[in-house]
């Protein structure tokens, strides 16, 4: 039985000219660690849901990505994190937004999937649920990074809202899709949102069907990009619908969604997707996307730019 996973760490204007050798090495190391730890869990018989959470948790714990520890600042100078997860076998899902001090938002989304009759919790209610299920909290200083803080200060001066990187235009959402030895797929996504975001803005990463979707009949999908466009296009579900109702295979569906439908409405970004046969795609219409793949019949690989490294 073929099994494995695909990850992403954000899409956008990711160019070799903007990457130092040291930073490139750090990104490669973290992406590889995410792949290795999640793949090892699949190899030992874990289900796809656990593997997705392991992969995303590694990236949430890294300050390199706009999720968990590396999350950007809101207009009010806080962190406001979103995440969601969905299983393909029974269509169960869990999602959260407005988490400020839960260390790993993806684990809170998973707890909702497993233990709540609701799908989507937000704000203080979501954090109360996290406490009831003994999830780890951190002081707000844990989520602080100098790079994000400098972005925030610049955003306050110009009153702009930045999609993660003001200078590189990187959409720093992280995500994973996985296929386990039991033939089931799962998708998960996590993000810190937009620098200087206001009014409790929620992006596509928290929304089932927009940023995350999974159905064993079609595919598991995690999106990254300009969230407003991905919400309007209901992109993750649209990927599934192109396969179920139009009869496209996974690569054809990814191509049509990212390089046609999203381009037509002005949406920039990408997605990762996998079906129950282990077929996958990683389309993006931006200059680059942090990404990685490890399948039971393929060697692991990670990449940033248009070509694999």
What is the level-2 CATH architecture name?
4-Layer Sandwich
Helix tally?
A: 8
Oligomer: single chain
Total separate domains:
1
Strand content: 15-25%
Main beta sheet = 9 strands, mixed
Helix content: 25-40%
Q: H/E order of the elements?
A: EHHEEHEHHEEEEEHHHEEEE
Task: Provide an overview of this structure.
By secondary structure, the protein is α+β, with helices and mostly antiparallel strands. It has a single domain (4-299), classed as (Glycosyl)asparaginase (Glutamine Phosphoribosylpyrophosphate, subunit 1, domain 1), CATH 3.60.20.30. It is built from 8 helices and 13 strands. A hairpin with a 5-residue loop joins strand 6 (174-179) and strand 7. Helix 1 (21-43) runs antiparallel to helix 2. The longest helix has 23 residues, at 21-43. The radius of gyration is 17 Å and the shape is globular. The relative contact order is 0.19.
How would you summarize the topology of this molecule?
Elements: E1 4-12, H1 21-43, H2 48-60, E2 81-87, E3 93-99, H3 105-115, E4 120-122, H4 123-132, H5 146-158, E5 170-171, E6 174-179, E7 185-191, E8 212-214, E9 220-225, H6 227-232, H7 235-244, H8 250-265, E10 269-274, E11 280-281, E12 288-295, E13 301-303
Parallel strand pairs: 3-4
Antiparallel strand pairs: 1-5, 1-6, 1-12, 2-3, 2-7, 6-7, 8-9, 9-10, 10-11, 12-13
């Amino acid at each position: 039985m073929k099994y494995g996973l695909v990850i992403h760490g954000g899409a956008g204007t990711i160019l070799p000219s903007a990457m130092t050798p040291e930073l490139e090495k750090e990104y490669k190391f973290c992406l590889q660690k995410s792949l290795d730890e999640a793949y090892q869990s699949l190899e030992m018989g874990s289900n796809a849901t656990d593997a997705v959470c392991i992969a995303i948790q590694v990236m949430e714990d890294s300050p390199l990505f706009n999720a968990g520890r590396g999350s950007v600042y809101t207009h009010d100078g806080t962190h406001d994190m979103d995440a969601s997860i969905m299983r393909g076998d029974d269509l169960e899902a869990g999602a959260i937004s407005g988490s400020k001090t839960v260390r790993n938002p993806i684990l809170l989304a998973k707890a909702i999937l497993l233990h709540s009759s609701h799908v989507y919790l937000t704000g203080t209610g979501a954090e109360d649920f996290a406490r009831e299920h003994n999830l780890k909290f951190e002081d707000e200083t844990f989520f602080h990074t100098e790079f994000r803080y400098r972005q925030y200060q610049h955003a306050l001066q110009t009153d702009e809202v930045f999609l993660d990187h003001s200078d590189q235009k990187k959409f720093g959402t992280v995500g994973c899709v996985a296929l386990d030895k039991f033939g089931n797929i799962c998708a998960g996504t996590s993000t810190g949102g937009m620098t200087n975001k206001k009014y409790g803005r929620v992006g596509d990463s928290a929304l089932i069907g927009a940023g995350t979707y999974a159905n064993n009949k079609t595919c598991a999908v995690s999106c990254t990009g300009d969230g407003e466009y991905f919400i309007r296009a209901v992109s993750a579900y649209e990927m599934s619908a192109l396969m179920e109702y139009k009869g496209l295979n996974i690569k054809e569906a990814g191509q049509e969604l990212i390089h046609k439908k999203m381009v037509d409405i002005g949406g920039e970004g990408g997605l990762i997707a996998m079906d129950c046969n282990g077929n996958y795609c990683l389309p993006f219409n931006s200059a680059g996307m942090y990404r990685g793949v490890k399948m039971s019949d393929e060697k692991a690989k990670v990449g940033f730019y248009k070509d694999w490294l």
